[in-house]
Amino acid sequence: MIGLLVVVELRKRVPIPLPERYEREARPASLGTVPRVAPLVEYGSARRREGWATMQESEVPRAVAAAMSIAGSLDLTVDDAIVLHDSNKLTLRLLPCDVLARVAPVAHQVAQFELELAQRLAESGSPTAALEPRVEPRVYERDGYVVTLWTYYEPATPPEVSPADYASTLKRLHCGMRELDVPTPHFTDRVEQAQQLVANRDRTPALADADRELLGDTLRSLRRAIGERGGAEQLLHGEPHPGNVLTTRNGLLFIDLETCCRGPVEFDLAHAPEEVGEHYPDVNPGLLHGCRILVLAMITTWRWDRGDQLPNGRQLRTEWLGQLRAALDRHGPDIPR
Hints:
Layout: E1 12-15, E2 21-24, H1 60-73, E3 78-86, E4 90-96, E5 99-105, H2 111-123, E6 140-142, E7 145-151, H3 163-178, H4 187-199, H5 209-228, E8 234-236, E9 245-248, E10 251-254, E11 261-263, H6 265-269, H7 274-277, H8 285-303, H9 313-331
Parallel strand pairs: 2-3
Antiparallel strand pairs: 1-2, 3-4, 4-5, 5-7, 6-7, 8-11, 9-10
């Protein structure tokens, strides 16, 4: 199975000067009947191309303090912050006002794009997380960080979702996105970035020549083959894997809209567990198959970047190369008609 996973943070309370404390709250490890494979990560946006990374530990207190200070200045009561997720940005639950804050360094963010897109999707009733209604919907800046404030959703109990529900919710999101005309990258731009990484021996020094050729050939041939299919394209989420799906009392909601791109819906489906694609209406099986192999080649490439910081990245890059070879041995690089 080609799928994406989410890094689960250990629950941990750490004393810091300001604010008084924060916690790392674990995300659910599974989505019920929707299986996950060994942890993969968010890899979609261009600013992550230098390798997956968490925010520097020394920056976390300042980032948390910036979010708490901004929320307090907006008359939201904030005594605590729980770190829900730590990647290139922090996702915090601010208490007791119960607001979700996303915090990123000023130099590495596309917060304005994500905020505007979220507003437009909310107007169409799309299944996405909403902005915090008690404050002005804008990007706030303090101490070198940008902060956006969102509605916090209590997780559903139990936090299970069927592949059919997952597919139905993703279909609703695609329907809402189809009505929007916003400038976004094409999915092939991401493929090209992977190709450039494969070609750059300085950035991928540990990649053997045979493996470099395999990745380069796969990325090139599938990028061309998918483009030549000439199917319908639209605005996509870009990374609708289980780590970007909330199971809430209000149903499933997609988050992390900064990775949006244009392309066939099969590219989005390639990020979800295989069972989800089986329930998505009118999907092209051959195109989905090609997109799954393409995504596998892309995420494998990121792992060979010498700057990659994904835990277990060295082990996974070898495993995924083996999976890629096995998939190509069974089916080849051509997309079935």
